[in-house]
User: Which sequence fits this backbone?
């Protein structure tokens, strides 16, 4: 009986580790290689069980060569991954409700200040879809979310003023990030690059993106490619809270 529970525990731990690694590499070029390695491991296990000695020898050699190739080709990703292990990026847990409320209030406070000062801003908040590829286009911050820090990042004259800020895992992950621009010619000409970037990012991910217009000094919110304009501070807080607490939609619900 003890042996059965031991086997179940080992399988559960292995499944959890593999699942977390897959989540960690989702959105990077290494994800396909990780999937390939998992397929090789499964094939190797089956070949061993079936006692196919020649195939086992071949897969052993292939796996050894693959590991060396991966270490060389994906050295930057591996280095970044190891550096993040100590910062809970791999084994992360959802934010508590009070933590999320505090972070959102700080963001809204900063956005309200920037709008009143006529300073443009672009802030993306990660939900379920990883924003890691976009984080890597900017400058790493990894700082606590605070109104003061966000205000400083978007103050004119700052080298990071023109890019986007990404909030990830309850932190300001990076600033000066580049987002995909929406190229729809039907979008009103009153929308600038920040609004097009907000729409573009929310068409490709489930992120929530807040935009502050320099010209009109108003606040907009983008989600799933739809832009809500002219939001007050209170309306923005309510809408962002609702979106952040919403469960991930299934493919059927999206269609």
Assistant:
């Amino acid at each position: 009986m003890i042996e059965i529970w031991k086997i179940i525990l080992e399988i559960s731990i292995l499944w959890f580790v593999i699942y977390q690694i897959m989540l960690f590499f989702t959105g990077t070029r290494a994800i396909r290689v990780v999937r390939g390695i998992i397929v090789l491991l499964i094939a190797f296990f089956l070949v061993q069980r079936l006692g196919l000695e020649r195939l086992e020898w071949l897969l052993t050699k292939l796996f050894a060569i693959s590991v060396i190739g991966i270490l060389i080709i994906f050295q930057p990703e591996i280095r970044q991954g190891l550096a993040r292990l100590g910062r809970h990026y791999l084994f992360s847990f959802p934010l508590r409700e009070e933590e999320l409320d505090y972070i959102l209030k700080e963001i809204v406070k900063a956005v309200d200040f920037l709008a009143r000062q006529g300073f443009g801003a672009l802030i993306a908040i990660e939900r379920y879809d990883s924003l890691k590829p976009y984080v890597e286009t900017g400058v790493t911050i990894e700082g606590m979310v605070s109104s003061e820090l966000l205000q400083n990042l978007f103050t004119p004259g700052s080298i990071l003023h023109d890019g986007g800020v990404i909030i990830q895992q309850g932190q300001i992950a990076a600033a000066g990030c580049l987002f995909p621009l929406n190229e729809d010619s039907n979008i009103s000409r009153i929308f600038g690059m920040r609004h097009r970037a907000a729409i573009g990012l929310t068409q490709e991910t489930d992120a929530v993106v807040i935009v502050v217009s320099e010209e009109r000094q108003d606040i907009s919110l983008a989600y799933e490619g739809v832009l809500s304009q002219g939001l007050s501070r209170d309306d923005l807080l309510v809408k962002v809270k609702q979106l952040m607490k919403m469960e991930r939609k299934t493919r059927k619900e999206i269609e």
Notes: Residues 219 and 232 are 7 Å apart (CA to CA). The chain has two domains: 2-85, 97-247. The longest helix spans residues 2-25.
